Amino acid sequence: MSFRPITHIRHFDIAVPDFDKQVEFYKNHWGLTVQHDDGNVVYFAAEGSPEQYVTRVRRSADKRLDLVAFGAADRESVDTLAHNLASTGVKLVFEPTDLQTLGGGYGFRFFDLEGRTIEVSTDVEVREHRKIEERESIPVRLSHVVLNSAEPEKMRDWYERNLGFRLSDTLNHPHVGDLFYFMRCSTQHHSMAIARGPHASLQHASFELRGIDEYMRGSGRIIRAGYRKIWGPGRHRAGDNTFTYFVDPNGNTMEMTTELETIEEDTWHPHIYDVQEPETSDQWGTGGDMDEFITKEMFNDSDNKSLYVAPPV
After folding, report:
1. Using an 8 Å Cβ cutoff, are 145 and 194 in contact?
2. Whether the Cβ atoms of residue 150 and residue 200 lie closer than 8 Å to each other
3. What is the pTM of this model?
4. Which ranges carry the VOC domain (predicted)?
5. Domain that residue 16 falls in
6. CB-based contacts of 264, cutoff 8 Å, min separation 6
7. pLDDT at residue 311, rounded to an integer
8. Sequence-ordered strand ranges (E) for 32-165
9. Which of 72, 97, 126 is the last residue of a domain?
């Protein structure tokens, strides 16, 4: 696909039944900053990111992934993408317009192949942000989001064909097939990945820290706060990034990471990594094996009831 409208990931938004505990987790332990709070929706920013917010938590009786938002270069890209999607039968939630969410901007929403709500926007107001200092163990930015899919091959093809994502690497099991597709929209190794799972759901969201020391200090802070660590600290082969995975108060998996690989677009050739090799999951060998328990934790609760149902905000 020559048309590549997506420039980066902006934010992911969730709805949770245990709203107060989720807000407390992000604010007092994970290291995010409350950008806006209306009592039922809280917008969280990362101190080092120019994005107005990197995640949004909405009070709801039902748990769900509300949406994933990506940036586009300009209004022409937004309009062209909306036209292209509509012309191929993709259902738009609303057509390009001035956005009423925090930071404004110009964008639209639509349902992806499996019915998740996706937003693409441009001209969002830049947030005043700052350099994260040495030993400051708070997120710099949102790194990436991983989506579970029962048909990851179809999802990969859809995002490549319709949104211009490119495949960076694949995790494969010789007897099961492809398990993980790492997808990029920039020189960052992946801003999104698609994982094989039993249903559509959020597999995990990942936050970038300043460096190794800050990543370790941040991981240690969450461990000391009593939140359940399910895997890490370690270092993946695909993307060459570090990882520590935790379960948040509503059962979502959240990752702390750093040093995600930057690639040369014109010379990169995707690898296929065998998950049976221990170094594929963890080059360091410090995080423990990627076992069935960890995999099931990251399946998360199914979003099937909310597919093709746009969030109210």
Report:
1. no
2. yes
3. 0.97
4. 8-123, 141-259
5. 6-126
6. 187
7. 97
8. 33-37, 41-45, 55-59, 64-72, 92-98, 106-111, 117-122, 141-149
9. 126
C-alpha span between 283 and 237 (Å, rounded): 6
Integer Cα distance of 33 and 19 in angstroms: 16
In the structure encoding, which two tokens stand for residue 206, read together?
């990942």
For residue 16 the two structure tokens come to 């949770």
Q: Which stretches within 71-139 are classed as H helix?
A: 75-87
Q: Are 101 and 313 in contact (CB under 8 A)?
A: yes
**What are the percentages of helix, strand and coil residues in the chain, rounded to 5?**
20, 35, 40
Burial code (b: 16+ CB inside 10 Å, e: under 16) for 248-271 equals bbbebbbbbbbebbebeeeebeee
> What does the pLDDT average to over 39-45?
98
> What burial letters (b/e) apply to 180-216, b meaning 16+ CB within 10 Å?
bbbbbbbebbbbbbbbbbeebbbbbbbbbbbbeebbb
Element (H, E) at 42: strand 41-45
Q: Are 220 and 273 found together in one domain?
A: yes
Shared domain for 55 and 164, answered yes or no, is no
Which token pair is 261? Answer: 């690989």
Q: Is the pLDDT of residue 288 over 90?
A: no
| Predicted confidence (pLDDT) per residue in 176-211, tens digit | 999 999 999 999 999 999 999 999 999 999 999 999
> Is residue 10 a contact partner of residue 70, using CB atoms and an 8 Å limit?
yes
Please, which pLDDT band fits residue 1 given cuts at 50, 70 and 90? low
Q: What is the pLDDT of residues 147-170, one digit of tens each?
A: 999 999 999 999 999 999 999 999
Residue 292 has pLDDT above 90, yes or no: no
197 near 148, Cβ under 8 Å?
yes
Per-residue pLDDT of 58-74, as tens digits, reads: 999 999 999 999 999 99
Q: Letter for the amino acid at 139?
A: P
pLDDT tens digits, residue range 242-264?
999 999 999 999 999 999 999 99
